[in-house]
Each structure stands twice: as C-alpha cells, then as structure tokens.
Write a structure and sequence with these properties.
This protein has one domain. It contains 20 helices and two strands. α4 packs antiparallel against α19, α8 crosses α12 and α14 packs antiparallel against α15. The longest helix has 33 residues. By secondary structure, it is mainly alpha-helical. Strands 1-2 form a two-stranded antiparallel sheet. It is globular and about 65 Å long. Helix content is 71%, strand content 3%.
Length: 496
C-alpha cells in the first residue's frame, strides 16, 4: 500500500464508521460492534505507519489545491503520528467503556453518541495528519462542531448552557485569534506548509513574531490557557465517556498538539529562542499550571477536580513548546501520551464510581475503595502518573520538561513544575486515601441497595480502566521507543 493510500484509509475508516452507525440504531449490539471494530482497525492502520516514519518516510496525500501554496494536504511526521496513535488507541478502550457506561446508566440517544464520537475521531486524525495550517484549521473546527452534540447529550437546560459556553469560547478564539494568525502567516511567508525549522525566519521582526505566537497560543482555545479555559469545566455536564474524549483522547490533545506543531514547524525553536517570542505564552502557561491546580484543590465534585487538573496539565505541554529547546519539545510530545493515558484512567474511574455508587463528590467517597478496589487501585496508578512519580510514565515527560527548562535557564519554571507536582499530590491522593482508609459512610452500600462487599462497575467499564492504568505503568518501562520517535523534533534538519 502506498503512503497516500494508507493515509486515505486512516482518514476514511472513522468517517465510514460515522456513516454506517446511524443506520444501526435498532440493532445496538451490531452498532456497538461496528464502533469497536472500526476503532481497532484504525489503530492497526495508524500503527503500521510507525516503522516507515521512524525510518524517515513522510507519507503524503494531496486532496485539493485552492490557490498557490494553499491546499488541503496531509502528511504524517513523528509528532502527528504520536497524536494519531493516542487518538486511535484510546478510542478502542473508550468504545468498550462507553458501551458499558451508556448501557448501565441507561443513557438515551446512544446511536447519536457513537456517531458523533466517530466523527470526532475522524477530525482528530485529520488534525494529526495535517500538512499545513489551513488543513489543520478545518479539521480543528470539525472537531469542535462534532463534539458539541456530545457535550449537550442530556438535553437539559444545564447541558445546553454548557454547550453554549463550549461552542462560544472555542469558536470565538479560533475565528477571532487563530484564523487571523493564519492569514498573517500566509501574507508574510507565502505558504502555510509545515516545514522543518519553520517558515517565518527572516520574514518578520521580533515584535510581529511575538504577536503571532501569542495569537496562536490563545487562539487555539482547546489548549485551555487561562483565561480561555471555562469551556472545559463547563463541559463536565456530559456523560463520562465524553469527558474522557474531551480530556484525553481528542479535543484537548488536538489543542496542545497544534501549539507544539506550530511552534516547531511554523516558527521553529531557533526563531522563538532568538526573538524571545515564547515569553508571554510561557508565563501564561506557568500561571495556568499553578492557578488551575489551586482551584482543583477547592473542588469537591470529582469530575470538576479532574477538569481543573487537566487545564493545569495541558499547560505543561504548552510550556514545553515555549521553552524553545529540543528536549523541552520532546517533553511536550511525551506528555501528550503520558497525560492522555493517565487522565483517561481517572475519568474512567469517576464514571465507574457514578454508575456503581451514584456518587459524584470527593467527600462522599469514604470507604468506597474497599467496595471498588479495582477502580480505586486504577485511580491510584493514574494519579501517580499524573503526579509524575516513578515507576509511572508521567515521570519521564516531566523529567524532560525540567531538563528543557534547565537548558533554557528558566529556573523559575523549574520551581513552578516542582510546586505543581506537590499540588498534584494534594488534590489527587486524598481521593484514594479516603476511599481505602476513611471510615465508611452510613450509606456505603453500592447502587440500588446492593449488599456490602466488593461491587464493581460493569465489566466493560472495569476492564478498560484497568488496562489504561496498567498502560500508565508500562509507559515507564517503554518510554524509549516514544523518545526515539519524537527525537526528530529536536533536530530541525530532519524533513517532516
């Protein structure tokens, strides 16, 4: 199979799933089987790119030439491959989890849910494979629109209000900041193609470069830099599988991926370093890391606490890109993976707790770990990875971010990273401690009057959260291949 045909297949599979699923609404078993099958096939197709991309190949597919140097075009380089692997791989476990969750909770409109989910993954793969800014922008917007019905899934006033916040912030930032930045970039460089070392060197002075980078950093609202972060906690009204999609699989990762890719292939780390263009986004990311962590400490609602944790963790990735050092960029790429696997575990656990015990508040979890030991052990492993403690995968990405800050002599940033790690401990580990060691509350018995004793969520919920928890552990021991795949990001001379 040629590179172009292979890319066609990767883009077509989730779209084909989205076209077939609506016709299977009356046959839920077949509908869910198609959803899972497409997810597995997509991951296998994306994984097949790994040997070629690691060997230096860059599969390319051109669809539409709109103007000179302005086309809908796809090309897969190492960072895009990492994001595509995350999106497609976690789609598999999320598909299984969603089946168990949606059925156990007796959710309505399940066919619409799985259809929109497939479209969102299609958009995420399009973002990952984009060869230029205009292609990335189109699929970025498709991702926003396709996830809106998921956020408003319950159809309540609260859900519709959350949907308005979600759509309002993401569309206003992309149209008001992101798109103008793309237009100015095209006017300056005459192209929007992602190129090694960037396309803006010698095309603009330091003030313009700094302004453009600020527009991109805040215009890509999915990265949730403060003050454009409110859409993310607002979206927690959606079902838990949607929260997993938003926080780990597609939406937020599309945001931070876009910032890293633009930093490397539109600006270039050398230009950012020489002009000091990354200073404002760098300190905005540091501010977001600390403030979001402090807010997480105050939230009793479990999903809200995890949402603010996500806002904080996303800024680690933005911060790594703004350090403008090779090791910092690699740390950002690694954190996309490490955070995705750890955070999806935490949201899976939150959903399992809700399905089984109907509890949403941290203060209600006393003693529940003794009833749901697999769920709470998985939560512990995911938390340790988010915190960055060995032997969990998250320690490697944080270590490389610290090295990147040291290489760039940003010692204040090292302090922020260390302090945020302590805050991670403060808002995550008490959940596990309460679950296992606090005296059980009077209404400890799980859902619907079930007897005391071990009472976990349905198997299709528990198995995925256990797998992703083990995945966080495995990433500690198998971080080497990920590092090797991302190494070209630190070597601008390598053609993407």
């Amino acid at each position: 199979m040629t590179g172009a045909a292979h890319l066609w297949l990767a883009l077509s599979l989730p779209l084909a799933g989205a076209l077939v699923i609506p016709f299977l609404g009356t046959r839920p078993n077949l509908r869910d089987s198609v959803s899972v099958s497409v997810a597995i096939l997509l991951f296998l197709v994306v994984a097949a790119f790994v040997p070629a991309v690691m060997a230096g190949a860059r599969p390319t597919l051109s669809l539409l030439e709109m103007a000179p140097s302005l086309s809908i075009r796809f090309s897969l380089e190492p960072l895009g491959l990492v994001f595509a692997l995350v999106a497609s791989g976690l789609w598999i476990v999320t598909a299984f989890y969603a089946i168990g969750y949606m059925r156990a909770h007796e959710e309505s409109h399940q066919t619409r849910f799985f259809t929109c989910f497939a479209v969102a993954i299609f958009a995420a793969v399009g973002v990952a494979c984009s060869a230029n800014l205009i292609t990335l922008f189109i699929f970025y917007e498709v991702l926003t629109l396709s996830t809106y019905p998921l956020v408003t899934h319950h159809g309540t006033d609260k859900a519709r209000k959350a949907g308005r916040v979600y759509l309002g912030i993401l569309l206003s930032t992309s149209i008001g900041l992101f798109l103008p930045a793309i237009i100015v970039t095209y006017a300056l460089a005459g192209t929007l193609d992602f190129q090694p070392g960037g396309i803006l060197t010698g095309k603009a002075g330091a003030p313009m470069v700094s302004l453009l980078l600020v527009l991109y950093a805040f215009g890509i609202g999915k990265a949730a830099l403060m003050p454009f972060h409110r859409w993310l906690p607002a979206a927690m009204v959606a079902p838990t599988p949607v929260s997993a999609l938003l926080h780990a699989v597609a939406v937020v990762k599309a945001g931070v991926f876009s910032i890293v890719k633009i930093s490397v292939y539109i600006f270039g780390t050398d230009l950012i370093h020489e002009t000091g263009a990354g200073t404002i986004p760098l300190y905005a990311a540091g501010f977001t890391i600390l403030i979001a962590s402090l807010i997480a400490l105050t939230r009793d609602n479990l999903k809200a606490r995890l949402a603010y944790s996500t806002i904080s963790q996303l800024s680690y990735i933005v911060l790594g890109a703004m350090l403008a050092t090779g090791i910092g960029v690699i740390g950002s790429g690694m954190h996309i993976v490490m955070h995705a696997v750890g955070k999806i575990t935490l949201f899976f656990c939150a959903g399992a707790i809700y399905v089984t015990a109907h509890k949403t508040l941290v203060s209600e979890l006393d003693g529940l770990g003794r009833i749901m030991p697999f769920t709470f052990m998985a939560f512990l492993l995911g938390s340790l990875s988010i915190i960055g403690l060995p032997p969990m995968g998250g320690c490697w990405s944080k270590w490389h971010l610290v090295l990147g800050a040291a290489e760039g002599h940003h010692y204040f940033i090292i302090g922020i990273l260390m302090l945020s790690t302590l805050l991670n401990i403060a808002y995550l580990l008490p959940i596990v401690v309460r679950g296992f060691f606090a005296p059980a509350q009077a209404a400890e018995a799980p859902a619907r009057g079930a007897p005391r004793g071990i009472q976990e969520a349905p198997l299709l919920c528990v198995v995925p959260l256990c797998l992703t928890a083990v995945g966080s552990l495995a990433l500690f021991f198998y971080a080497g291949p990920l590092y090797s795949l991302l190494l070209p990001l630190a070597q601008p001379g390598v053609t993407p």
